[in-house]
Amino acid sequence: MEYILSREGGWDSVQDWMDVLSGGEKQRVAMARLFYHGPQFAILDECTSAVSMDVEGAIYTLCRQRNITLFTVSHRKSLWVHHEYYLHMDGRGNYQFKKIDENTFQFGS
Where is the ABC transporter domain (predicted)? Predict the structure, then answer.
């Protein structure tokens, strides 16, 4: 993401970063902060919705390598390969908590 520094005037530039960064750039910065702090657990709410699937895979692989336990809120079934369990809430007070395996019905997109 070095290009952002040159694009926006360097490290000392004062910007409204919410207006300057794209959605994917904001998500990458948020994940960089996660890796910097290295928590034991992280709750990720649609944290990769604006990045490509290869970047998404790299992010989740790095989280696993760094032993960060993830709770992910997402509609992307591509993320299931990075998790062992799912919690499905139906919006009416009911839920299912199950292990993900090759027979798991995958909802979402």
Answer: 15-49
